[in-house]
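// run 5 | inverse folding | seed 20
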């Protein structure tokens, strides 16, 4: 049997659009900053740690209108990776993003990591934190981490399920999940950046 001369060959489905605006969410100690840094290095997308942008020296919070104005200006940019939760402005970021990465690792892992982080950064600000905000570990933050999966995660996951089908959502539960997912990403760094990381 011969194909009709006017018949068209089947076309391949279009490739998924490249990630441009990525949110990285999860409990404190889940590994958001580490994943965001790795993703930025692989994709070349601009990375913003919201902790570094939000806090002022001495752990001073900005006025809410000023913070919303800062976020509005940021999410209007064509490409970014935003690492951090900040529930008061989450809706704005969800409306602007094309990809959400939710890290959902066990609570005991998160608790261990925040204790380790405090010990490793004693007396100084960690790299993803604002200058003048020395690493600290207080009871409200420990409680927030300890109760995150029970008290906050269910509502967040329900909200993510309600996002448009055009928004990609991926839940990463284990280190192996992170590594497998990262391995599927094309290396989209500029040639000079790719070469520099190989030396």
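// decoded
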């Amino acid at each position: 049997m011969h194909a009709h001369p006017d018949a068209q060959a089947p076309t391949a489905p279009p490739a998924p659009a490249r990630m441009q605006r990525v949110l990285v969410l999860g409990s404190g100690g889940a590994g958001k900053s580490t994943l965001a840094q790795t993703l930025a290095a692989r994709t070349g997308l601009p990375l913003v740690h919201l902790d570094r942008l939000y806090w002022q020296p001495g752990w001073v919070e900005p006025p809410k209108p000023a913070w919303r104005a800062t976020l509005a200006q940021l999410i209007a940019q064509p490409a970014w990776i935003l690492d951090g939760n900040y529930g008061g402005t989450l809706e704005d970021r969800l409306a602007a993003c094309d990809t959400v990465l939710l890290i959902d690792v066990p609570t005991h892992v998160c608790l261990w990591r925040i204790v380790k982080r405090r010990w490793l950064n004693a007396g100084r600000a960690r790299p993803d934190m604002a200058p003048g905000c020395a690493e600290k570990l207080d009871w409200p933050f420990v409680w927030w981490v300890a109760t995150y999966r029970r008290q906050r995660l269910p509502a967040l996951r329900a909200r993510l399920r309600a996002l448009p089908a055009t928004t990609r959502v991926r839940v990463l539960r284990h280190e192996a999940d992170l590594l497998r997912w990262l391995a599927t990403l094309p290396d989209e760094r500029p040639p000079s950046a790719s070469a520099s990381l190989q030396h």
